Amino acid sequence: MKPAVSPVMRLVPVLRNLVRTHRLERADPARLDAERRRLLVGLVRHAQANVPRYRELIAPETAAAFRGPEDLPSLPTLDRAEFHDRAPGDMLAAGFTTANTKAGTTSGSSGIPITIRNSERDLGRLRASYLYDMLAAGLRPWDRMAYFRVNPFLRHPLERFGLLRTFHIDTSGTLDEQVEAFLAARPTFLVGFPHVIASVVEELERRGVRYRGARRVLFGGERLTPTARALVLGHLGARCHEVYASVEVFTIARTCHRGSLHLRSADVVVELEQEDGSVVPADGTREAEGEILVTRLHSEAMPLIRYRLGDRVTVGPAGCGCGRHTPVVLRVQGRSQDRFRGHDGREFYADFLTYRVQDFPEVSRMQLVQERPAQVTVRVVLTPGAAASVTERIGAAVREAVPGFDVSVERVRSIAPEANGKIRIVKVEPAAG
User: Where on the tree of life does the source sit, at the highest rank (predicted)?
Assistant: First the structure.
């Protein structure tokens, strides 16, 4: 039986993994490829030998012949629904149980909540990944970090020395409670969903309070309109970075100092599934779009191989001049299941419509909702003083993009987030499917 997860955060594994991450961040392509292959081959063989479900899915001879990313299409994908329906014992490696691993549960915004279990070694890598995200975004040891999230987090021992102090802004509370917690914390570094941070900043502006203590903002989890982003950064006088991450696979991509969202190729292998079922590797050789399949290279207790995260993304070549040799995520287009349907029953990804809306500088928040085929309701939160006619112009822009659709534009005071605190910019109601 494997040892239980420590009830306190262990810094040594975190620091060890932090050094490894930094070492590989700018590794040359040959070295990075060799490391990925080594980890991927070990992961596949570990899963086949030790995980009950993978023993059913992967034949011993397939695992023995596996050589690297090019062989991934020979393996089955792991569907979110199947993962949810399986007993934990089916997905846990030998020696691991619910008693000696720590659970991480997704919000269930897709309708299917997933619980991932991590070993102490997995957690060391997870914490190092998140810490590196913040260091790459400009975190300093003496910063005061405000985390905008529902659940609190495990404290770390460095706080007793006044280093990396963390403050929980409970996003399940009222806006007034969040603002008061924010002002009491006096943070210099902010981490959270963009629209939540934007809401706090807008309330500060409404109150006439100018907060200039923040140096950096680390956005993650959703897209913010250019107008709302400019408001946040302009009010705070801060610089921003972004991450693309999930509970299941940790950080998938993070921005460099040039603003490019680089895949973390030392930790994940990404494939893009096309409409016809074929798969394109996100290897930086060309631009490709599709449903993302993620293999988490460091997953000891509960391996995730070719996991359907549920997002549709576009990945481009590794052409950034920052010194990294990894592919760049050009767009995260939202949930793959949120596809609009036309009169003829054909479905399409509606993310392109959002750019027709956010191009209007008066739009602070937006959401496109389909309740029946060939129909879309555009909900917008407009900036103060926006002319009433802007909703007509937004409607015209959307109708031009989807001729024949019944398009309505609603000016609203706010847009309700999902249970996890995110706003789904494109949303399909069940009746529309």
Answer: Bacteria
In the numeric block, which tokens belong to residue 250?
């940790």
| Residue 2 CA: distances (Å) to CA of 76, 97, 163 | 28, 8, 32
Query: For residue 336, what pLDDT band results from cuts at 50, 70 and 90?
Result: low
pLDDT tens digit sequence for 81-96:
888 888 889 999 999 9
**Burial of residue 109 (number of CB atoms within 10 Å: 0-12, 13-18, 19+):** middle
Give the DSSP per-residue string, 161-205.
GT-SEEEEEETTS-HHHHHHHHHHH--SEEEE-HHHHHHHHHHHH
The closest of 255, 252, 228, 269 to 73, measured between CA atoms, is: 269
> What angle do the packed helices 120-136 and 11-25 form, to 10 degrees?
50
> What whole-number distance in Å separates Cα of residue 298 and Cα of residue 39?
8
The tokens 């003083």 sit on which residue?
Answer: 385
CA 99 to chain centre: 28
d(CA 218, CA 15): 21
**Mean predicted confidence (pLDDT) in 37-49:** 98
**H helices of 217-335, where?**
226-236
Cα gap 345→355, rounded to integer Å: 24
Contacts with 372 (C-beta within 8 Å, 6 or more apart), sequence order: 431, 432
Q: List the structure tokens of 28.
A: 């040359």
pLDDT band at residue 24 using 50, 70 and 90 as cut-offs: confident
Q: Spell out the domains of the chain, with CATH numbers in brackets.
A: 11-126+244-335 (3.40.50.12780), 339-432 (3.30.300.30)
What's the predicted TM-score (pTM) here?
Answer: 0.84
List b or e across 324-333, with b for residues whose CB sees 16 or more CB atoms inside 10 angstroms. Answer: bbbbbbbbbb
Note whether 261 and 242 are within 8 A (CB).
Answer: yes
Q: Is 433 helix (H, G, I), strand (E, B) or coil?
A: coil
**What residues contact residue 257 under an 8 Å CB cut-off, 6+ apart?**
322
Residue 111 has pLDDT above 60, yes or no: no
Residue ranges with strand state E in 267-400: 268-273, 279-281, 288-296, 307-316, 328-335, 339-341, 347-349, 363-370, 375-382
The strand pairing partners of 294, in sequence order, are 270, 307
